Amino acid sequence: MDVVPGAWRRTAAGAGLLSPQGEVAPTIFAEMSAAAVRFDAINLGQGFPDEDGPSVVLEAAKDAIAHGANQYPPGRGIPDLRLAISEHQRRFYSLEADPDTEVLVTAGATEALTATLLALIDSPEDEVVVFEPYYDSYAAVVALAGARLRTVPLRLPDFQPDLDQLAAVVNDRTRIILVNDPHNPTGAVFGPEVQAEVVRLANRHDAVIVTDEVYEHLSFSAPHVPIATLPGAAERTLTISSGGKTFSATGWKIGWVHGPAELITAVLTVKQFLTYVNGSAFQPAIAVGLRLPDSYFDDARATLLHKHRILGDALRTAGFDVHPPQGGYFTVADATTLGGADAMAFCRALPERAGVVAIPITAFVAPEHHGDYAGLVRFAACKRVDVLEEAARRLAALG
């Protein structure tokens, strides 16, 4: 008897979720985290902070628990959080979002993305276009939805796409153009010409734009500009974000998606059969966070940029060629000069060699494209300053 349905096996295998033996394939993140424990290494691999977020937000969660917010919240999310999300979009971007029909609270941005793709993919002929490297869940979700993943490479030195290549990939089978900005893992922020071309192509080919903007308040060179603000974009764009990165509360898994009511209804139709609801006490706390003064968001951005500079200086001293990020949690460095032409092998040796954990960029790239990113390594800067300084001391031994 085939206990595990063949269709699931094919989907999981296509997404890289199964080993050739049919076992669940461990992710590079799990492997590197285990190595951090084994060698007592500093884990700069996974993107989670080691400091708590603002106390007023933490206290709001405690207060919500104490006052009974411990049962199922409404399926769309508690009204005050949906209102706070709507206020946030208007305050920072002049975007209007009806909190009752155009905002949906989810179990993090990952569920928002999953529910969106499952809701909008209609056929195995549908294609989802992403920039490569891409956050690893994208390929898995596209496979789960039964669609075809199409990629557009991001090239050094600034990890921007070639617009002719983008135009060549997007076609009438393109159902979704998925844009992660600021971008994980590269730290790129896409310029106005890239955003405008995404909108032009989406309109030309009647595609939906889905944006992953979880690092929206961690854009260093200029304020974040959502694609939904561009002419001709709002009516076909679903904007996804979350509170985890902004408020250093990645474990709370409070995300959201906003966009046209008919698209939000489609996403809700799927979302209700995934987690149904989550984070009853965390939802009012994130609402408090979204209403914090501008000084909080400015300070959070400045603090992370300072940490990136500490990390970047350490990597240069160790002999890496560093590509400073324009936003987000991560700094990308080229390990070729340190014998890291094979970044996967380099990262597997690094915990024992230097007592530091990092992730190869090839973990975010289809196997056939590994050669284009073979020496690149991603380091997380979202750690305490003293931790980054200790990592700097350890990495210096490589130079």
Question: How would you briefly describe this protein structure?
Answer:
With 399 residues, the chain is of the alpha/beta class. It has helices at residues 6-14, 28-38, 55-66, 79-93, 108-120, 137-145, 163-169, 192-205, 261-271, 282-290, 294-318, 343-354, 385-395, and strands at residues 42-43, 103-106, 127-132, 148-155, 160-161, 174-180, 208-212, 237-242, 255-258, 321-323, 330-334, 356-357, 359-360, 376-380.
Secondary structure elements and their pairing?
Layout (H helix, E strand, L loop, with lengths): L5 H9 L13 H11 L3 E2 L11 H12 L12 H15 L9 E4 L1 H13 L6 E6 L4 H9 L2 E8 L4 E2 L1 H7 L4 E7 L11 H14 L2 E5 L24 E6 L12 E4 L2 H11 L10 H9 L3 H25 L2 E3 L6 E5 L8 H12 L1 E2 L1 E2 L15 E5 L4 H11 L4
Parallel strand pairs: 1-12, 3-4, 3-6, 6-7, 7-8
Antiparallel strand pairs: 2-9, 4-5, 8-9, 10-11, 11-14, 13-14
Helix pairs in contact: 3-10, 4-10, 5-6, 5-9, 11-13
Structural commentary:
- This protein has 399 residues and is an alpha/beta fold.
- The protein folds into 2 domains: 6-52 and 295-398, Aspartate Aminotransferase, domain 1 (Alpha-Beta Complex); 55-290, 3-Layer(aba) Sandwich (Aspartate Aminotransferase, domain 2), CATH 3.40.640.10.
- 40% of the residues lie in helices and 15% in strands.
- It contains 13 helices and 14 strands.
- It has helices at 6-14, 28-38, 55-66, 79-93, 108-120, 137-145, 163-169, 192-205, 261-271, 282-290, 294-318, 343-354, 385-395; strands at 42-43, 103-106, 127-132, 148-155, 160-161, 174-180, 208-212, 237-242, 255-258, 321-323, 330-334, 356-357, 359-360, 376-380.
- Helix 5 packs across helix 9 (261-271).
